[in-house]
Amino acid sequence: MFRWLLVLLCLISSPAEAQLAPRENAIRPELVAEGPAMPGAEVDLAIVMHTKPGWHGYWLNPGDAGLPMRIEWRLPDGASVGPLRYPVPDRLLVAGIVNYVYKRDHAILTRLKVPAGATGVLPLRASAQWLACTDEICVPERGEFALNLPIAPGEAGNRARFDEWRRALPRPLSTPARFAVKGERIEIAIPLPASVAVVEPYLFPAEDGPIDYSAPQSFRRSGNLLIAEVKRRRGVPESLSGVLAMDGGRGLEFRAGPGPVPAGGTPVGNLGLQAILLAVLGALAGGVLLNAMPCVFPILALKGLHLARSGGDERAARRDALAYAAGAMAGTGALGTLLLAIRAGGSAAGWAFQLQDPRTILLLLLLAVAITLNLLRSFELPVLGGEHSPGGSFGTGALAAFVATPCAGPFLGAALGTALLLPIYGSVVVFVALGMGLAIPFLLIAFVPALRSRLPRSGPWMARFQRILAIPMAATAAGCLWLLFRLGGTDALLVGIGGTIGLVVLLIAVGIRQRQGVPIGWAALALGLALAGGAAALIPPTRGAVARVPLGTETWSEARVERYRSEGRPLFVYFTADWCLSCKANEATAIERADTRDAFSRAGVKVLVGDWTNGDPAITRFLEQRGRAAVPLYLWYAPGAAEPEELPQILTQSMLITRALRAGR
């Protein structure tokens, strides 16, 4: 009713509008191809809807009111386009009316079939009509879009843009859903592994009619099914289809036929506080255990100094620990907030995103060099070593959070994956809790006298201890140089070496002036920041690290996994990154060992590696589907098993060899 009333109003307004001066469309379409095409092949097209702020367009089912876009294609003979593929929509509630809309720029994808005899340029033309609305008015709009598609071999020049647009599409479920009509309710059982975390789902029906849009929806989990309960509006449908929207803009496209829907299950949705509490507890536990993970090795020097200082004056120890904790919480909170902002902009980013940019690695390199020289007493800058002042301790805590959290330890992977699905306030609380967990050991030492009394007192030995602890920090600098080369190539490596030499000369000169009694600390800091900024500006555009595939393994892809599973092969899949020290430790001690390789070879185990060093969006999407936001992730696919077994994040050889022996029987 609302929809046809809106259509009538739009038709009435059209003649009056035609007598006015032409107006600029609030939504402007643009036709884009992923790349050139070959005769007889297919190429993806995108209709990009550029939307002015304050306006919105509509999904294929607009809801209670609105109109979907209609297109009339004018294509050369033999050419054809497939169905339109829409991104996951938003909900808009106005005066009790529920609309399914897009409030910002979005792309609707389709696939073009190129004629077998096409040559030269293929002219593509189309006319479209759509409805553009604000919260107060609606205006019917129309427009033409055209594209001259070259027929020639070549790379897909728009692949990065299309990857982003494809990420916004709902992913089709291969297993059909089932629905049952029970009085005034329709229950829809959607297959979804229990391991996939869902906090606030919503079901967008593709068909207009059976489902009441404005009625509340409820969800429950029953094994590997997510069951939606919606209010029936009219009729008994023969089939249902739509999109299950999940947290973070993700969606699953489903088709459902009549069938049994199990009763009971665990309620889902409206559990924000419970989900936040569980994620916070996981982040606290994960932060505490992170102190024992290989990820923290690069900052052993800083942690060692804090432990040593905690054995001194009680008031100073507590002040130092509180400042350190505040810095750690501020650091993880800031990283988490930045990650949420990047993801809100449409990029597929995960935890440790900061280590996928060569400019960030360069800054870490220079920071590690500065800390190494500070520990060697080449110069004095308390903020780096966290010495003698709450400001220094705060800086050290923030640095610890920045450097020590790229890998996911026990409890941490699931907590961070859940954090990315929560409302913004819940996500930030979880990230801050991670920093608190990281600092808990130092808080315990500072506030529990029995623990603090067991630490050695401050003394001359600390100077020698600092020099010894400069070794792992220097090793960190060397690791940053290697990672800089992996991410940015030779040019980035040369910039890193040049910046390191310049910083060493600067800081040694600063140390000489300091020993002469010249106060130069802030000037040195300003010069160092200028040097770091200049070096970062010289880093060439990232080329992305080439994925590493150890001998005897293959590059991971979902298609390759499905192929080997269909052949009945046992599979071991692991996701790693060059900057993840936990990953490298597991590879050295459990995966890349002769005994493990022999056991895998005898059992016919295929090993697939997903290298996430450069933030591969396909891996990011897969991690999100598993409810994860970081690496490492280890999966064992036993022949015939419906779902893979997720292995612990600290591996042993026996875990892998035992599973290989079982698979080989």
UniProtKB/TrEMBL annotation:
Residues annotated as domain Thiol:disulfide interchange protein DsbD N-terminal: 30-148
Residue stretches spanning the membrane: 276-300, 321-341, 361-379, 391-412, 424-448, 468-487, 493-512, 519-539
SUPFAM superfamilies (alphabetical): Thioredoxin-like (SSF52833)
InterPro entries: DsbD_gamma, DsbDN, Thioredoxin-like_sf
MF term (GO), any: protein-disulfide reductase activity
Domain of life: Bacteria
Single GO BP term: cell redox homeostasis
Transmembrane as UniProt keyword: yes
Entry keyword set: Membrane, Signal, Transmembrane, Transmembrane helix
Residues annotated as signal peptide: 1-18
Name used for this protein in its record: Thiol:disulfide interchange protein
Native organism: Sphingomonas xanthus
